[in-house]
């Protein structure tokens, strides 16, 4: 195969594997209504963060809601396909394993106690 045939295929493959080129889907596995912390599960692992803004009602997420967007560090506007609205989420941890996400949830719940 010549380089003229291989290069476009490699370029397209690189775009497909890049998280910035296409939005990915994730499922909400944890949501805390008090401090609006959220954990989503996607193909790469778990992403943890806080909901900053809802763009339509209802103003909460539920486990099982499907989000589409970018789930890496920073603030991202994600589309909530379950409720047909957009949600802005700031992700603090991204692409982590289940045990790290579980520890992050425990830390968030400790911040909620009224001691």
Précis, in short:
This protein is α+β, with helices and mostly antiparallel strands and 115 residues long. The chain is built from 2 helices and 6 strands. The longest helix is centred in the first third of the chain and has 15 residues.
Write the layout of secondary structure elements.
Blueprint: H1 3-17, E1 24-32, E2 37-42, E3 45-54, E4 66-69, E5 74-80, E6 85-96, H2 98-112
Structure explained in plain terms:
By secondary structure, the chain is α+β, with helices and mostly antiparallel strands. It has a six-stranded antiparallel barrel with strand order 1-2-3-6-5-4. The longest helix has 15 residues. It starts with a helix and ends with a helix. The mean pLDDT is 85.
Radius of gyration: 17 Å
The overall strand count is: 6
Mean pLDDT: 85
H/E series, N to C? Answer: HEEEEEEH
**Count the helices. How many?**
2
What summary fits the major beta sheet? Answer: 6 strands, antiparallel, barrel
End-to-end distance, in Å?
Answer: 68 Å
């Amino acid at each position: 195969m010549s380089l003229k045939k291989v290069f476009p295929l490699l370029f397209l493959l690189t775009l497909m594997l890049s998280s910035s080129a296409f939005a990915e889907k994730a499922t909400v596995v944890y949501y805390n209504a008090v401090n609006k912390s959220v954990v989503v599960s996607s193909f790469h692992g778990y992403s943890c963060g806080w909901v900053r803004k809802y763009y339509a009602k209802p103003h909460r997420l539920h486990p099982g809601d499907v989000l589409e967007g970018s789930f890496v560090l920073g603030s991202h506007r994600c589309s909530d396909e379950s409720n047909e609205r957009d949600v802005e989420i700031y992700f603090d941890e991204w692409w982590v394993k289940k045990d790290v996400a579980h520890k992050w949830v425990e830390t968030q719940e400790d911040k909620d106690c009224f001691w």
